[in-house]
Amino acid sequence: xxxxxxxxxxxxxxxxxxxxxxxxxxxxxxxxxxxxxxxxxxxxxxxxxxxxxxxxxxxxxxxxxxxxxxxxxxxxxxxxxxxxxxxxxxxxxxxxxxxxxxxxxxxxxxxxxxxxxxxxxxxxxxxxxxxxxxxxxxxxxxxxxxxxxxxxxxxxxxxxxxxxxxxxxxxxxxxxxxxxxxxxxxxxxxxxxxxxxxxxxxxxxxxxxxxxxxxxxxxxxxxxxxxxxxxxxxxxxxxxxxxxxxxxxxxxxxxxxxxxxxxxxxxxxxxxxxxxxxxxxxxxxxxxxxxxxxxxxxxxxxxxxxxxxxxxxxxxxxxxxxxxxxxxxxxxxxxxxxxxxxxxxxxxxxxxxxxxxxxxxxxxxxxxxxxxxxxxxxxxxxxxxxxxxxxxxxxxxxxxxxxxxxxxxxxxxxxxxxxx
Length: 420
What we know:
The chain contains 15 helices and eight strands.
């Protein structure tokens, strides 16, 4: 057995190890197509604040406010606060058209969504207001008419934080759009759904969120401390460490926009990566030692090491493909006919990575087919292009090591969606 064959065997063993380490995910995936339990209706007597950071979002804010105005929940118990960064923002005049809606202009410039919420929650305290719960929405969201009612039912069932389902406003075959949309299928349908059905805490990622008074007012004392690039992930760790109960409710649906260009997607994912890394360093050591009654066993392992198996698989495959490619070139230049074997190894490794990701995307599409609303052509496009989206994470992750300061960058939102 020559050196290349030995190298191939070592790679194969590492690859099998990575695959075996990922097998626990079958426990999560089997809940993907199961119907989630419908929670009982609760009396609509709780008062809620709806917080909407809306920096330069005048093109889409009316659709969100329209969807709030037709909610089935008791509207007398809803107060909407739209937060803008500039006193000349057209959003201010738009908000005047809606009942129980006010617009708050930030006193100074802030660099994150979390910092925006911090100032707004302090303002609520200064006004002497108190609410049973706080919705946190993105300005490009549009809510199903029963969204607030369903989130309310979930909170009343004994939860401290509820994450609603999210779908794309306009499903598209664009590879950036599809990859971003399927990200939420992986996080929610193929992970958080299982956690919620088994009484485990979820991985809080993104919006729409409903946070109880027990967290905002009693625990934080209105002093929202989460101002990192990924305040949602930070909030999840705080809930786990302090035994707050979190829940994902797929029936409470909100629609939003996903990045449409590669530049927008890179900026968004770079912010996610930097934010996740800083939050993990800050909270994971404490979380690992905490005996949270809502995150134990397989769920705790998944939160501590979610990327362990994928990293083993991708890194080992990348190294072996690079090694095979270089060896093939060197042997070919030396006139050694043995170059054909490392060349085959190079091609097979790259093809295997690509098609594993392609079928993984297909699995997600089939699992969430009804919600995603993709046409056959769009599903076919996603099968072939989404692997490129996820492979691009490697380049973005490497880039994150060389960029120290990642700031919020404006994403132009303009998609319309009316919900009846």
